[in-house]
Amino acid sequence: MFQILYFLIHALQPVLVPICFVAAWFLLVLLLSDIYAATSNGITTIKRLHQIPCANCQYFTDDYRLKCTVHPNIALTEQAVYCRDYYPQTKL
After folding, report:
1. What is the pLDDT of residues 2-52, one digit of tens each?
2. CB-based contacts of 13: which residues, under 8 Å, 6+ apart?
């Protein structure tokens, strides 16, 4: 029985080495492309979230219970990017 297994291993070895080589490189390229896609998606999301102007608005309370006195339901969300009631803080 071991003679048959020994024969199969040595008969398939010239075919398995290139297949494993290509499979290993394919998995490496797939992993790197997933890392690149996740990173670019994260950067896009961060850029979009940095456009939220709530922290610089006069109506922003900086309190977790009532974030904004005008629009408390959309404060600090993506919907607040184009808030029509945004009024910048005046520094004294």
Report:
1. 788 888 888 888 888 899 999 999 999 999 999 999 999 999 999 999 999
2. none
User: Residue 92 and residue 83: Cα distance in Å, rounded?
Assistant: 24
The domain ranges of the chain are 1-50, 52-92
Structure pTM? 0.63
- In this structure, the dihedral spanned by the alpha carbons of residues 7, 10, 11 and 16, taken in order and rounded to 10 degrees, is 140
- Cα–Cα distance for residue pair 88/53, rounded to 1 Å: 9
Task: Tell which residue, 48, 35, 58, has the closest CA to residue 82.
Answer: 48
Work out whether the CA dihedral 10, 13, 15, 16 comes out positive or negative: positive
